[in-house]
Amino acid sequence: MYKVVVIGGGWSGCAAAVSARKAGAEVTLLEKTDMLLGLGNVGGIMRNNGRFTAAEENIALGAHELFEITDRCARHVNVDFPGHKHASLYDVVKVEPQVRRLLKDMGVDIRLMSRAIDVEKRQEDPVIVDRIILAGGEIIEGDVFVETTGSTGPMGNCLTYGNGCCMCILRCPAFGPRVSITQKAGKSDIMGRRKDGAFGAFSGSGKLEKGSLSDEIRQQLDEYGVAVIPVPKEEIVPEKLDLKVCQQYALTEYAENIVLLDTGYAKIMTPFFPLESLRRVPGFENARYVDPYAGGKGNSIRYLSVAERENSMKAAGIENIFCGGEKSGLFVGHTEAISTGSLAGHNAVRYLKGMKLLELPIGLAIGDLIAFANKNLESEEGLMTRYTFAGAEYFKRMKEKGLYSIDREEIRERVKRYGLEDIYSEKLI
Ligand SMILES: Cc1cc2nc3c(=O)[nH]c(=O)nc-3n(C[C@H](O)[C@H](O)[C@H](O)COP(=O)(O)OP(=O)(O)OC[C@H]3O[C@@H](n4cnc5c(N)ncnc54)[C@H](O)[C@@H]3O)c2cc1C
Prior knowledge:
This protein is of the alpha+beta class and 429 residues long. The chain has helices at residues 11-22, 51-61, 65-72, 95-105, 155-161, 172-175, 181-184, 215-224, 240-243, 252-256, 275-278, 334-352, 365-376, 380-383, 392-400, 408-417; strands spanning 3-7, 26-30, 45-46, 74-81, 84-90, 109-111, 116-123, 128-134, 139-141, 144-147, 201-202, 206-208, 226-230, 257-262, 266-268, 289-291, 301-302, 321-323.
């Protein structure tokens, strides 16, 4: 049987595993920690702004399973908050076990605490990889590989480009550092930049324990899913907006207020907030961070490890590695990771069968985002931009191009017109 090996079990790796399995391949998924979903264990915002369109495009293309889970686990739907409309907020505690069960039931061989550290190549120029070596020495053979290791950390990067290890969900001190597989195969990674030219970017939010907040704030979160609390003038630090990954939240409202969202925890929409200063805000007198644990001091550093790739998600110069998620561009978001991961997994199977690789048309938001983000990596400015359906530059483009819609039928029709309805459900092997 044909074998696909996915390296990295975040949203993009899980999506790649699902689409490759649906296309008929044997799939092994390697994840360095003891949980799937990576950063998906601490996010939660779905369907805000253009992400609604992208979620529905994925569903029409046949990648519906993961959205069914995030929709089912939503604590709140149709939430508006500054700059964002019709968001749904999934419960970050409930989603991972459900995704794990889905993958298991589909027959994906999930290998947790399996950190890839190197590759063995069968051929140079173009490179063909045939084995992955795990920390500990085990060798995993495959016919084609999908790299979805993300771009977060390792600790050295958080130290050099951030405020040190902030003890984020990836828990590098316990499970070991992220490793770039395309780099091990001989290709250099592209590094994203901030507005001031510095490398990487701070993750843009953290979680507070809801029980550590005032009754009033908690009630607001439980009832509406959102709470916007003004920050006293002396505690406002507008420069923090330039640090963040998530340019869709780099609006003045986010500097002048504490914006909280209910994802099971109270998601605080700022990269970090010194605890002493936070506790001076009424209602936060006892506030406590649960993610990252050192959220009073810093946050994880991302976007230092992007592979050069084609719009089919195949890594440039490597015959049999595809990539998805943050590894495949300066993308922000679960929806973006699922969109790119699903295509990468599907194309990995097309490669095995010797079929033409699928490129999604730019008349679909997903195809346009994939092509636009790729093209923009060629410029300095493009390296300072982040790409998301949820806001900033790309959402503006989506609206200008008439790609943004919240009409499910219209979105399905669009996918149908390109002859792509349920393409990810076709068994190729
Ligand atoms: C604090 C925070 C809040 C966020 N909130 C939201 C939100 O609300 N909504 C939203 O849409 N987006 C949010 N995002 C962004 C979003 O989570 C990410 O862009 C997206 O989930 C990235 O998915 P990924 O699969 O590309 O990477 P990751 O989630 O980073 O997954 C990569 C996986 O690969 C594993 N790995 C790495 N190296 C190896 C190796 N060598 N061997 C094996 N495994 C390896 C890692 O352990 C990890 O599980 C948030 C991000 C953060 C940090």
